[in-house]
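Next comes a single protein record:
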Amino acid sequence: MKTLFLIGAAFFSSLTFGQTLKDAIYKTDNERYADALKEFAALVNADPMNGEIYFYYGDCYFEKGIADSAKMMWNKGYEVDKIKAMPYVGYGRVLWMTGKTAEAKVEFEKALALTKKDKVKRAEVIRGMAKTYIKSDNKDLDQAILIIEEAILKDPKNEDNLLIKGDALYAKTQDNASAAIKAYLAVLDINPKSARGIVRVAKIYQAAQNPEKALEMYKDAKLKDSTYAPAYRANAELNMLLGKKKAAIDDWQKYLNLNNNMEARYLYTSALFNAKQYCETIEEVTKLNAKNFSNFYTERMLAFSYLECTVDSNAISKGLEASNRFFAIVPSNMINYLDYKTRGSLYYKAGKDSLGMLEFEKAIKVNDIAAKELTAELASKYFKAKNFNKAIELYTMRAKLIPLTAAEEYEFGKAIYSGTKDYVLADSTFARVIQLSPNYAPAYLWRARSNFQLDSKNERWAAQPYYEKIIELVKPEDRVKPSNKGMMLEACRYLCDYYAKSEAKDLTKTKSFYEMILQIDPTDAKAKEALGIK
């Protein structure tokens, strides 16, 4: 009787274990990572020598995006259990992901050898191998496609086979996803209530810029299985991108009802941020922080959101506080140029331009992308601060990366003129402005000034053609405008001298330019004197 009781207890225990492991795997697939990890932890605590648990424990971490923890679990499973097949698959994954592909295949072969007589277990091993070939950075899609066919034959009622087949086919030929779609939809032949393949098909249509079809598929997925949380999340993210904010929030709320934990709320917050819903992002990050959930990602989102959402009168100071917290905790290798740009922009809005410029300086050193985006703005800031040498340095850097616009060349030339006073270089820079914008009169003004500096005694009257061009370009009715008045007077005065004193002496033209001066400024004393007007 005692023996019978022990047998029954062991049977009941294995049944409960199997059911619990299945539940934990289901929660992983349903993106309930926090709940799944708790269950896996409880399972390994109850059965610490079972390497199969560690394999799926690692899977959960991998799906969550924490590869180091996944490897740790796969290594642990291999360490404690060399009887079952899946620990060998897990260790093979670790080797494969670290570039030791030959050694990994040896471990995979060991797993296959242990499952020769068990079709279902062999298919499980093959799926583990195929996912490695598909999801690791070191992909072997052809091998994944080849071996998954055996899993389909060995375990034809397992929908995971078709999902993996679809994943491999889509990864290989994204420009023609028909074969992948066929595999995904074939899941319904096995399980008509499955939403997993339909969601994958919806994502294909979404990637192919067919949002209407994607939305149709997401709707179908939710009807098939109203408990499949990823369908709501994916649908919500698409609606956010399409600007359908209310529909997106409705789906997010349903996702959170199915998967209500801090990590799920963090996903929601990230989606709001990516959809540029910055005021709503602030609200959600604040809720996460109130429950002691914070990391450098939340601080990054908060800093940028306060920069963009200034409903709060203290938004800029709060943004700087978030940025301070971000830089205090972020690993140095995780900082990107946008972090410096955000901090610099917050300083600018706070009226602390010098601090803002220092942050932009840090940003442009990160990579060429940052330099292309930010050097023009930073150079202009230095120009306005009359730090001409710094502006020259930045425009020179920018010109090596990307052709300067007419406006950038114009400011570059003025910085050279006022800073290094290299008038030859200034003149050639303004010449490029004219090439880009032939009717821009101020560019001729600065060419005239540069040439005057190179010929200050008017031995060649080098500035004359550029001052003449200003007269030609500015319409008579526009000459008195504040933006043109000073430029016109300068040009007229030079031309008065030119036609009075040069070899091209023409007193009629001299008189006409003095008359033009009086039209622009009736109080000009020198013009009155020259024309005999009291």
